[in-house]
Structure formats: C-alpha cells, structure tokens
Amino acid sequence: MRIPIKRPRRAAVLAALLGTLPALGLIQLPDAAAGATGAARTGDGGITAAKPYMGWSSWSLESTTAPGVNAAGQGGSLTETEVLANADVMAAKLKSHGYTYVNIDAGWWMDDKWKPEYDGNGIPKADPTRFPDGIKAVADHVHGEGLKLGLYLPVGLEIADYQAGNFPVAGAPGCHTHDIVYPDLRTTNGWDSAYKIDFSNPCAQKFVNSEANRLASWGMDFLKMDGVGPGSVKSGNNYDNTADVAAWSQALKRTGRDIQYVLSWSLDHAHVATWQQYSNGWRIDTDVECYCNTLVTWQNSVVGRWTDVIPWIADARPGGWNNLDSLDVGVGSMDGLSDDERQTYMTLWAMESAPLYTGDDLTKLDSYGLSLLGNDEVIAIDQAGHPARPLTQDTDQQVWYSRNADGSLNVALFNLGTAPATVTAPFAALGFTGSASVRDLWAHQDLGPMTGQFSATLPAHGSRLLKIAPDGGSQVSYEAEAPANTLSGGAVVTGCTGCSGSQKVGGLGHEGTLTFNGVKAAASGQHTITVVYDDGDANGRPLTYSVNGGPQTTIQAPGTGGWNTVGTLTLTIPLRAGTNTITFTGPDSNTYSPDIDRILM
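and the corresponding structure tokens:
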C-alpha cells in the first residue's frame, strides 16, 4: 500500500534561498562524460564509508519556521556559534555511541540574504558574519573534539560565481572560470542556480580539483553535493550531472584526504551504478523536513520512506549507503512527532542501515531523544550494514527483517495506520520453523522463547524492534535475492507473489548463475538442504548446482504449476565447517533452469 504524503517544495524553497537568478533559455545539447575513477579508499587502505556514517547536519534547523530559530530569515540559524555548540554536545553525549560528523549545509558561503561570496579563484569562501573565524578554525575545533567536519556545495558552477568575474583557476595557468561552462550558458541542478560545466574542456577538471584542494586544506572530511541529476525533480541533458559526480570523485581522491562524498537529493534509481561507482551515498527521496514550524511531520515526509526505499534496498553496501535524510528524533518539542513516531522513525533508519545524522538542536536534546539516539543495540543493527526488506506491504501493518551473520534476524514490526493494530511476524515467513529466543532492543529486554510467531499490539505509527535467534532445531533460510549473494550472466532479481519476501532470482541457465555466499555449517560432512523454487514449465526444467566451486551435479526439477507457485527439492550436499558457497545454474548455455526463491537448512 502506498501511503499518500504531502511533498515539500524543496526546489522552490531553495531557489528562493539561493537568490533571484536571471531567466535563461535552455538549449539541450549532448554533454561530454568524465572517466571512471574507481572506489574511494581511506588513507590506510580501508574502504571509505565502510559503515553508514553518524553525526549532525545543520539543514533541518535552517529550514524550519519554528519561532526563534531563524529570526533573521530562513537559514539564519547557520552560524559558527551554532555549529560549535552542536559539536560540543555531540562530543559530550553522542560521540561515545559513534556519532562523529558535524556537517555544515547550505549557506556557509552566503550572508543572511543568501548573497554568496567567492575568493579570487572563484572558490566559495565562508561568510565572515556567519563564520568570523573561518572554516579551518571550525574544523580545528571539531577535530580537537575527535569529530569530523562536513561541508556542502551545489552541483555546477553557480551563476553568481560566473557573474562575479572571470576568475583564474588556482594552479592551472591559462584556465579561467568562464572557460569551463557551455557557451550557451545552459543551467543545471535542481534549482537551475548554476551553469552546466563542460568537462570536455580540461580546465573544468582543474577547477574542480582546485575547489577540492581548498576544501581539503581547511580540514574537510565530508562533502554533500546537492541538486544532482538525473533526479532532483529535473530531467533532460542539462540536468545530467554524472560527469560532475565523476570529476568530484577524482578530485577528492587526489587530495589524499579521506573524504566521504554523498549525493543529494532524490537521485534517479536508474543511475544507481554511477552513484555506487563514484560516491559513498545517495539520497533516495526528497527532503524529510516539512519546512513548517517544526522540523518534520509524520506525513510530510517521514512516512514516505517506507515505500520509496524499496527499489534501493539491494544497492546499499560497504562504501556506499542509501541515505534516507536527517533523523530528527532528539527534541520532542521541536521534532513535530509523537514519541511513538520518533521511535518508529529511527527504527526504519536503523533497519535500512541508513546514515544516522540528526538535524536537531542538540543543545535542547531531551532525555527520550538521547535514549533513542544513544541506544547502542539499535545502532549496532544500523552499523552491521544489512538493509532490511518487508515481508509484504499489502497493509499498514508491516514486518521488515534482515539476517545477521550468526543466523539471528533483526525484525521490525510497524503499524503505519492511524489506529492501534496487532502486527504479527510468522517465523515461517522469516525463513525458519520451530522456536526462537526473542529480545526487544528498544526495551533492552529478553522476552524469552517463542514458537511459531511473535505478535504485538502497536499504537498508531508505533513499532517494535526485535532480535530473533532461531533455536538449534530450527531451519535457517537464505534468500536468493539477498544482497550478499552473487548474480552473474543473465541472473536477475524479480517479483514473485508466492515467494518469501515476494522476490526470487530468475534468468538462471544460459550462463546465468546464482551463488549463495555465507551458507553456514556447524561441522564438515553431508548436509541436507531444501531448495524452494518455481517452474512454470509443465515438464519442469533441469537444475545444476555445485558446492564451494566443486563438481557440478544436474537434477530434474518438476514443474510447480506456475511462475508464482513454489515447490521444493531436497538435496544432500557436502559442506565444510564454517562458511560455504552454493551455486545454481543450468546444465549448458542453451538451457534455462527453474527460478530460485530461497534455500533452507
């Protein structure tokens, strides 16, 4: 069920904040693409963004019309004093739970009328009223507390930057800022506040390099690039910023500094491979803020994430995460939510392994907000990096789950309806039978052994978050569509109404293969597994399997009566103690096999 929500008009709001821009005719011409740069790495050889980042962002406070927050106008709350005050609270109360990033959002290079300022090389410089000591001084303070600093830029060359002068590009003799945009001055980004950069001109990459070097010299650890397309409510060649994204990825790596690079807002899922290649995260939705007298509201637009994250679930992985936007649950008087909604909000973010960054005024952090943001058991689910998926979304009463390496499951029960309701998690639907030990992670309470299912009556917009550990006699399920598996050739995740999780893997055979990674066995020897599959051919199809890269075996799978009707096969296979791989395909390059839902063992 798709729940209707009212979307904030981000484009209109930020266009106004970024200043009145001249009306320009747009000419749609093909653009040059930048080359690939590879995955980001930290200085010590580890993966940048190995886990979802945690921290604070200034935008939620900048966006609100709550009394007293932005007395000088929208965005007026952004000052050096505000940033350092929130950093101090984070260091004192949240750093021990993993919160480290202090991210300064839009406006840091603009005055309170949103007039921007640039240096002699066309690079944004901090507004002296907002940041009298400059960004480097802020970074030094933040780093001194064991935290990290993030900054914000819109994609493209800002129109105001172009109009301020034809600046020489730092470190690039003969290059000037007017050289790097298309001669027709076509606009780009989600607000049309910038000219599109022509990366066929070598000066373009040099300008981006100069910006990245300057930001790194200040001690920047994080960059949010906003208004990126395809996406951000715009379409067409003018708004394809994939070349910008690649150029910035290359420039940030060249600085030698470990800098997370995150893209915003509401990216186009059709280009997820590009976002994964060049960035460490991507916003999957519009702003969570309501642009009203609170920070958010349930309808505008927290609840939309339950629907909008679905296409992205399989795309999150170490090095790049689905960004659901700010987590504004820390100050009940300002958040615009009930306590039940605050808990439910954070439960989804944690279950999806989304970055956990709050936009609250941390100087007003209340005890309940601290109990949410500081719950280490819930944070551990987020940081484990196994995004959850729903059993079904047919009703407002939903069960979402993910599997841990030890065979236990993280299970969230959600009541998205407007009245109290009972939500039930059937163990069979979660992939095992028998009994299990259940722990309530919000209550820090063991609920004891349970058999068959777990049920709870939840208030409107309420939730429970559980860790469920099947007992030794239970079967463990490995879903074919799980992100940890490897698909190759023509293998593809597809829908299946009769399958667990409503998904399966098809396209097996004809060189399409599915490998289950991480299949665990307590001891070496022969083990029995159950393959749950569907096969719409009346006579069935052959299925070829191998274990740990060993010899292939082919069996005939009977037809199941339809491509949404499952059947089972029982196989006895040799497994070694610990972790194993099981691969399914067809017997040759001309023969398809059944589709696979999951395996049980």
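(Above: one complete record from the training split.) Residues 517 and 581 are 5 Å apart (CA to CA).
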